[in-house]
Amino acid sequence: MRLKDYLELEKKLKHHPNIVKDNIGDAILYHSNPIFRCIRDRIVKMDFQFTLEDPYQYFSCKLNALDRLKSGRILPYLPNRKALVDLERKSPGLITLKDVNLLRINWNATSLHECCHIIASRLMVRNRSDQNSLGAQFVLNANLEEAFADIIEYFCQLYINTEAEKFSSNYNMYVQVLSYPEKKLLREAIQICGMEVAIKSIILLCLSSHFLIAEVGTSMLKNFEKLIGPSPLFSSHVKQTQLRKKIYKMLLFQITPFRIGVGSVYFKGHRYKSSLKKTLNFDPAKFMLNDREYYLRVLDQMVELITIPNY
Ligand SMILES: [Zn+2]
User: Fold this and answer.
1) Could you tell me the residue range of the domain that residue 85 belongs to?
2) What percent of the chain has pLDDT over 70?
């Protein structure tokens, strides 16, 4: 696809107040992707504003700024679309989207991923006193927040089809564009579980991957079922076990090295003195089961955000 045609398509779609007009792909995703749109509408409703200012030094170190983003009201972003407009102006009709991908233009994680962190962290707040409490709950909730942000990106992928949508996705998501067989795994999960159970199960699998568990064992699966009720993805039937393992492999594969680095620094930043391995050395399923009512409510609210009617 020519950059010229892409920019024209974006221009046609950019007339909605919730669209960040100079972020690459924003208009296209807002119009074509119901999950992207839902997260955007929610964050705007929460009075967050996208800004070109960067008071938290977000662009120098995203992780270090995350807590301040969560407690603030602003989302710093780079107006990266201007570079595309300039490229096109200099050589009209010659540049393609493939050419642009070679340039490694900076992308905006604040357009979707960080919004998910903010939304999830607010869903999980119980009361002021335990909001900053250390210990296992902080670790579990940080990982659940991360799992939610990841799963939002994965489910967004179900709506990414055209070249323009794929290009837009590359500039707004950590999760790389999923292949047809990868999307098929998610679709199969939805088919056998129903949307709600599929989302909850896959969030819990993603959570396990954030605990760096190589393979989710039977006792953890049983505890997950005690938490959310029966899920075909947690059953021991051969076909469903195969599907779960494939989905889990996909979740582990996409972000593990990055996750280990970020995880260890994030927890150290909250004064956890042990290694990441030790910090994560508890069973997330058991922990959630001990606080079932709270975690079920959190999961239900997360599901509501991802479930788009008539999928
Ligand atoms: Zn994240």
Assistant:
1) 3-134
2) 95
Question: Are both 169 and 297 inside the same structural domain?
Answer: yes
Q: Which residues of the chain have pLDDT under 70?
A: 127-134, 254-258, 309-311
φ and ψ at residue 178, rounded to 5 degrees: -80, 145
Q: How far is the CA of 255 from the centre of ligand 1 (A)?
A: 10
The alpha carbon of 148 and the centre of ligand 1 are apart by a number of angstroms equal to 9
- Cα of 38 to ligand 1 centre, how many Å? 18
CA distance 171 to 167: 7
Is the same domain home to 191 and 62? no
Is this model's pTM higher than 0.90 or not? Answer: yes
Cβ atoms within 10 Å, residue 57 = 12
Residues contacting 23, CB < 8 A, separation 6+? 50, 77, 78, 79, 80, 81, 108, 111, 171, 172
Q: Which residues contact 281 (CB under 8 A, 6 or more apart)?
A: none
